[in-house]
Amino acid sequence: MGILKLENVAYRYKDAPKDKYVFKNINYEFEQGKMYAIKGKSGSGKTTLLSLITGLEKCTEGHVFYDGKDLKKMNLDKYRNTEIGIVFQSYNLLPRLTAIENVILSMDVSKVKVTNKKQKALELIKSVGLSEEHCNRRILKLSGGEQQRIAIARSLSYNPKIIIADEPTGNLDKDTEAEILGIFKHLAKDENKCIIIVTHSQNVCNEVDVIYELK
Amino acid sequence: MYILKNSLISIIRNKGRNILIGIIILVISCSATVTLAIRNTANKLVKNYEEAHDIIATISFNRQQLSNNFKGGEDARKENIEAFNNIEAITIDAVKKYGESDYLKDYYYVYATSLNSETLTKATDSFEYEVEDRQTTTSSSTTTEGGGNYGMGRPMQGEGGMHTITNNNTTTVITRSKEIFQSSRNLTGDFELDGYSSYDAMTNFVDGTYQISDGEMITDFSNLECVISSELASLNEISVGDTITLKNDNIEKTYDFTVKGIYKDNSNENDSINMYSPSANQIITGSSVIEKLVEDDSSLVTNVTPSFILKDEGVIEAFSSELKEKGLNEYYAVNTNLDQIESATKSIENVKTFATTFLIITLIIASIVLFVINMINIRERKYEIGVFRTIGVSKFKLTMQFVLEILIVSIICLSIGAVTGAFLSKPVGNSLLKSEIETSKNAEQEISNNFGRGDKMGPMEMNHNGMVNVTEIDSIDAVVDFTVIAQLLGIGIFLSLISSLASMISIQRFSPLTILKERS
């Protein structure tokens, strides 16, 4: 059984006409240890679907189940800070904090039990290919690729089962894109994470196990 | 815990914004401390003053009422005078009856009469002297000499007289008569005997107008004990322990009073030009002594001045009505010292009102400014809100973080402002009060000038019979106490909440995804 299941999911904006859905009857299932790509044209509802999976929005019809539990019945703040890691195209890190502080903040919010949070954050940052030197830099002093690695490290800080990324390589060059995809692949295969990437990049689609297309 | 940590990091790393907010709060807290300290101290002063000064009712003659009932025309004059004579004087029994009222805390009275003395010399700036007029007749001429006397100040015995000396062809007619040499000011002849019902009734001693300079105040209000003025004592060489004899001429009875003390009248500096103070012939004794004198001679002319201490200002009307019901003549009115008390606290009340108004205006302006600053701040930090919400920070915790940021800045700045305000409140308070008193006095001075009385009129000089002089509060000495600190803390929390309102609303309203999309 998959860790995440979308059952007859449909979404309509609140101010839209009753028959005007962004998408309808979505039935996807996601498993741990695999990489997924959700692709589609601009305006097809990729980011909206991401927001339903992450609990930032609620679906108009249907259900999203995480580990067999309906998201509608779950504390979505707790779900986001313990069960699912989110990586955005524009990284969404706090610029007033340093790289390591962003990772530690995420641990604080999730209340994960770690003896030495700083040490753990350092390990995570190293695991995404950055050095100790990057740790104490403010976010804006880091390159796009470095920021995206910090965003991935942050999403891993509370060891979630799912990592969902919205166009994670959209702002990166090809080499960096390959490095980032390598990290995701490692997380899926070696760390048994379920990686869901919302993208329209063919390079990304070539690296994943399953592709869902929104029309 | 991470909320507090994030708040502190945010405060430290957003110095510009927080310094701006801090300066505004500092100014507010400083002015709030000053105004609260002034307001609270003024409240206490007024309360203490009102507690210390009882509302005292007295009975006075209502001349207005009398003139309303006057009949016009020359023929009615006699009738009017007779009507006036028929108005009953307030008796001691009536005063005692009025005193038994539920509206009163206490009452006291001065029961006065006057007696003469054959052994005491009155303290007066007039004296009698003998004038001798000689008319000499000779066979050829008549000469008249006048103005001779036998010594000034020596009272003449008898009613004067005339005798004739004939010598050879000269006949001298000597006419002796008494003349009074006196200043143009009015004089009193008798010794005024004031019988006080209690020490409270001795208002002149209570307010310091009179002061015992030798001996002590009478201890027994029914014995023939008395206290006399230093002027009378000096004139008659009387010491404490001596006995003075007063006489009721009506019944030819004398009374020996033991002098227990000698008092000094401190008010004479302000009197009109007299050799002796008006109190020089005033002899102080107990009211029971006067009652005994009246028992001996019911025709003795007496005068009673009652003072009724009311429970509070709300019973004035009720007490007045009760006196009417108990038989107080329509020609008498009940007056109180309420106006005097209110006048004495007027300046401080004005300063209090000013402080309160200033505080309210400051708080309104500050709230608006802080709200606007925070609204701008929230717009700038919209992205931050989106990120926090995305990583699973609840709306409540996020709101708490924003409120905490403002609260920390507020508490630091309030503390600094409170200390600064504590130093400023005393001089500012006194300066405001001084300015208020000066304004008030200038207005009074102007009125006095209009009456051609210079500086001789004003609330400081008002003195009602039977009432303690009410003096104006002229110093506020505002202090920052626990109440001010508590109120300041309340203001700090209020301002923090008001200024955080923008962030509270925004956090509830913003969709994190929309924020992040906008950012992208």
Would you give an account of this structure?
The complex is a heterodimer of chains A (215) and B (520). Helix content of chain A is 37%, strand content 22%. With 215 residues, chain A is of the alpha/beta class. Chain A has a domain at 93-159. In chain A, the strands form 2 sheets. In chain A, strands 1, 2, 3, 5 and 6 form a 5-stranded antiparallel β-sheet that branches. In chain A, helix 3 crosses helix 4, helix 3 packs parallel to helix 6 (144-156) and helix 4 crosses helix 6 (144-156). Chain A starts with a strand and ends with a strand. Chain B has helices at 2-13, 15-52, 63-69, 77-85, 92-99, 203-206, 230-236, 287-296, 316-325, 338-344, 346-380, 382-390, 395-450, 482-509, 512-519; strands at residues 55-61, 104-115, 126-137, 142-148, 161-167, 170-182, 191-196, 210-215, 225-229, 243-248, 253-265, 282-286, 303-310, 332-336. At the A-B interface, helix 2 and helix 3 of A face helix 1, helix 12 and helix 15 of B.
Any descriptors?
heterodimer; A: 215 residues; alpha/beta; five-stranded antiparallel sheet; five-stranded parallel sheet; 8 helices; globular; B: 520 residues; alpha+beta; 3 domains; ten-stranded mixed sheet; 15 helices; 48% helix
Uncertain runs of chain B:
141-160, 182-189, 456-468
Helix and strand succession of chain A? EEEEHEEHEHHHHEHEHE
Strand coverage percent of chain B? 15-25%
Beta-strand content estimate of chain A: 15-25%
Which overall shape of chain B is indicated by the principal axes computed on the Cα atoms?
elongated
